[in-house]
Amino acid sequence: MTWPYPQYPPPSGPPPETNLVWAILATIMCCVPLGIVAIVKANQVNTLWYQGYHAEAQRSADDARKWAMWAAISAAAVVALYLLAAFLVFVLLGVSLWGAAR
Amino acid sequence: MTTVYTGYPARGARAKLRALGAPMAVVGGLGVCCAVVWIGDPTTPGGFLPVCPTKALLGIDCPGCGGMRMAYSVMHGDIPAALHYNAVSFVIVLLFVWSIIAWTVGRLRGRPVNSWLHWRWTPLAFSVVFVVWFIVRNLPFAPFTALRV
């Protein structure tokens, strides 16, 4: 949503959704550094909104979601690497044991 | 994209189902996670549940370490054990129960219901608790060594 007169902030109107929930969940369950960035961005949303910076508030909300998403993606990548490594170890162990048994 | 936040309460089975769809998916997902933790029993070492990567790689307790053991203890009604494994995560679980209920009620009413996630100081308070908890539970002297899990 864009406000046509950014230099005259309206007195009311709800601030945009801060996406704080995603920032917190990403921090707890995924990648801590990226999640912290998301929390900081989510923190800016209401402050900016009540100062009249509506476009900036909206951008911070979008940024918060973006950082939380990257935190989740990086965590998923780590889990995938972990599973791949576990699988490789399992296969190598199996092959070597099978070779030793013959 | 249409929204369930029309300003009017959900009327009729179809609208109610649409409002409850996302919360039911979340609760279902949580139920699957709980079932996995219940079967895996993280309180007994050597199960199939992985150790937290932070702990495995760096040897320190991250703010979430002990979370699965905490969940396992809660599901078995052992609240003191749950608080021992991760007291902060226990509180956060309660907070998220609250916000999920508020979210669901808001969807049914057609008007968002605010919870702790919408308070202005929540991001700051959460960050402070997160950082302090991270430091405190890794301090190498008593009484903080009791927080190690």
TrEMBL record, chain A:
The chain crosses the membrane at residues 20-40, 67-100. It is found in: Membrane. Pfam families: CD225. Signal peptide: none annotated. The keyword Metal-binding does not apply. Keywords: Membrane, Transmembrane, Transmembrane helix. PANTHER family: DUF4190 DOMAIN-CONTAINING PROTEIN, NG5. This is CD225/dispanin family protein.
Automatic annotation (TrEMBL), chain B:
Keywords: Membrane, Transmembrane, Transmembrane helix. The chain crosses the membrane at residues 20-40, 83-105, 117-136. Pfam families: DUF2752. This is DUF2752 domain-containing protein.
